[in-house]
Design brief:
about 270 residues; mainly beta; 6-stranded mixed beta sheet; 16 strands; globular
Length: about 270
């Protein structure tokens, strides 16, 4: 019988960024690791909201344009991988509700103060038909209105869901950067699970996003690209207390195998 080996790892440093610079620095220093698949599915509403803003998500004139691009949403650069949507010549109000993930992952547990403690991601919006931050941009360009985190039970079928409040209400590019005939903006969003949910029987199953253009009836058009990228789970693995210990990163496995101890060998 062949003997297989698997490299153990030092316990990683704490990765609980509070701003985009710390988020990027943690990725560059190897604190982050891919955690959830990048598969996109389209929906008319999110799961029942248990935490955060419990008001309903917008679903007027829904479109189904979002998809995985390149390496997927863990990529530090949206040019290499992202979740991307585009509404060409959007001349009327639209929304889009998508779920990302829920099929494969490492399925590390949420802890009361350690293990998986939060998540964050970056986003870019770009108007491509004009560099003007005018009424057409405000009324017709895509923006992220809400987002949320779906938690799944490791040993059962229960789920919990947290939703952000309303982040934006129109597509303006105030403070945006112009380049030739385009204008764009970068964003960073994060949440700390410990602020509202602590249960080590659950894992982060998927993230949900509610994209929109301004609710109303307006003339004119605009064309927008939007990318979600550099998604990361934040963690506290107690590295300072485990300097003499090593850990085995769980295998990338299906949702159905989430409660099985599996190690991947190469």
């Amino acid at each position: 019988m062949a003997i297989k080996s698997h490299n153990t790892r030092d316990f990683p440093e704490t990765y609980k960024p509070l701003n985009v610079d710390q988020h990027i620095d943690g990725v560059n220093r190897g604190k982050a690791f891919d955690a959830i698949d990048s598969a996109v599915s389209h929906h008319s509403s999110p799961p029942t909201i248990n935490y955060g803003d419990k008001s309903g998500w917008s679903n007027y004139s829904r479109v189904n344009n979002a998809s995985k691009k390149g390496e997927g949403w863990h990529s530090p650069r949206h040019e290499d991988g992202s979740i991307h949507t585009n509404w060409g010549l959007s001349g009327s109000k639209h929304t889009e509700i998508i779920k990302v993930g829920g099929n494969h992952g490492n399925w590390l547990a949420i802890g009361s103060s350690d293990f998986i403690t939060g998540c964050g991601f970056r986003m870019r919006r770009k108007r491509t038909d004009s560099s003007s931050n005018n009424n057409n941009a405000q009324q017709h360009c895509i923006f992220l209105k809400r987002w949320g985190v779906e938690f799944g039970q490791r040993a059962g079928g229960s789920t919990k869901f947290w939703s952000s409040g309303v982040l934006n209400s129109d597509g303006n590019f105030n403070g945006g950067t112009t380049s030739g005939s385009t204008i764009s903006q970068y964003y960073y969003y994060r949440t700390s699970f410990n602020d509202y949910f602590r249960d080590s029987d659950y894992v982060v199953k998927a993230l949900w996003f509610n994209f929109a253009s301004k609710d109303g009836s307006y003339s004119g058009t605009a064309t927008t690209d939007l990318w979600i990228f550099n998604f990361q789970l934040y963690h506290e693995m107690r590295g300072a207390r485990n300097t003499n210990n090593r850990w085995l990163k769980p295998a990338w496995r299906s949702w159905g195998d989430r409660n099985k101890g599996m190690i991947q060998f190469w």
